[in-house]
């Protein structure tokens, strides 16, 4: 028998009947299985096929070199340079995007990756502005660019979160980068505002939504938790409370999101380096400020407060019942009391065998200022500061007394103009 | 080139955990994997069970692993190959031994209606199957992957963990051997 006859016959062996019922049942089972085991939904963390292709190509220098030589012979390297100023809808714009992809793929330094993503995010905004000046901006382009902008920003945060300071990068550097990123995000927020000012109605809403999400400080949270994951940067998240690793709790005070799982032993040494008041002093201040004794021992944690304060704070919490309590935020350097707020423990889980995830939601209480002022729409302030100063001293010892509040609400008629800032 | 990018796009979707794409992929691959398992195990039930397991294992890999799948074909067949190897490693499951390659399959030949039908239907086809059993397990695998499952040489290299050249030469030699054995069988007849 000839070889091709043999192969033909092997091919014939494939004729095994498949039970269609088995296929259908299997599909249903697989569907259930996938529903029970969902994929984590963090897009930038998942694999990107484009990056994959670029990395593969980069690992094959010969074809790349040949293509590059041919391309430069035909077009001259001027194309790449010219493309750098191109805008969406331009012919050279894809070249610019490809060059950016190449730059992304060839940047290996983790800190530079963060900086590059921030730069690319700014580029996207610049493009919108240029298009607007030339009167070529359309809703689709603006939306696309804003989406890319957001994705670059998220990537920057993910890269920052993945930095491991055990290796070559020192923690002050990481903090510096995260601060820079925050600064960039802030300036981008105001940049979007300037674009928004000259934008037509059709995409104005998209811009203002994006600006809100930038200014609301939402990106700051991953930045902070990013820094907090760095082992040696205990300075950022320090917890000396009695809550230890056994409670998988996340305490969220405004603009802070901190896992309470850092062990207390490594922290004490780092605290001295930070030049902050000690835990005992903080507890004493909390006592003076009128924090109720509560049902359990107070818990104290040292945190980096992101936002306008930009400082270390002690958060001392009591337990008024199983479900609520109060938190005092104290400036860890000066000992000044920033705020006393109530928090509620929201229990998400109903199964008692598993330790329930607990979310602590503080309700901000503010001093009594500007309570009944209803300004005219044209008098609307740009921002309302919802970050209180020293809070009410007449706080009831049992926590049941009324706490004075200030208006952290946007005045009537100013909803679209005034923003809340912490 | 278009097909290449389409394939890459599907792969990217699967790597990102797109359930619809994964189900489509199931519909496409499940019969193929079943046939492969059926051919190697000789039991429909076992083959059905194993082909299903391949998809569960693949999904778990997608959601748990930091690495991505870069060749779906190779990945699925490799998973199936490992499952079959595990199956034979378990005590109580007979193995196709190298010394007596006809051992496992020949016994089944007398029991399984699947093969009986085949004998009646096509004598020549059966001769090839008979001859295939005379080869070593590794040679059988190479032939099955190449001509039964239509995997490319590079895919087989990934599945078997051998180099491209080793697989290429291996397939060539296995086919030569198969031809020799088949003709011997013919001569006997």
Mean pLDDT over the residues of chain A: 66
Beta percentage of chain B is: under 5%
How many DSSP E strands of chain B?
A: 0
Radius of gyration based on Cα positions of chain B: 18 Å
Shape of chain B: globular
Helix content of chain A: 40-55%
Radius of gyration of chain A: 28 Å
The string of secondary-structure elements of chain A, in order, is: HHHHHHHHHHHEEEHHEEEEEEE
Chain-averaged pLDDT of chain B? 80
What's the helix count of chain B? Answer: 10
Q: How many helical elements of chain A?
A: 13
Report what the structure shows.
The complex is a heterodimer of chains A (422) and B (189). Chain A has helices spanning 3-12, 20-36, 49-58, 61-75, 78-83, 93-106, 110-134, 139-162, 171-197, 201-215, 220-229, 265-274, 279-288; strands at 237-239, 250-253, 256-259, 299-305, 311-317, 324-331, 337-347, 358-363, 383-385, 419-421. Chain A is of the alpha+beta class and 422 residues long. Chain A starts with a helix and ends with a strand. Chain B is built from ten helices and no strands. Chain B has helices at 2-15, 19-41, 44-64, 72-89, 103-111, 113-121, 123-134, 137-148, 153-160, 164-188. Chain B is mainly α. Chain A binds chain B through residues 1-3, 5-7, 9-14, 16, 18-19, 22-23, 26-27, 29-31, 33-34, 37-40, 43, 46-49, 52-53, and chain B through 8-9, 11-12, 15-17, 19, 22-23, 26-27, 30-31, 34-35, 38-39, 48, 51-52, 55-56, 59-60, 62-63, 68, 70, 114, 118, 122, 124-125, 127-129, 132, 143-144, 147-148, 175, 178-179, 182-183, 186.
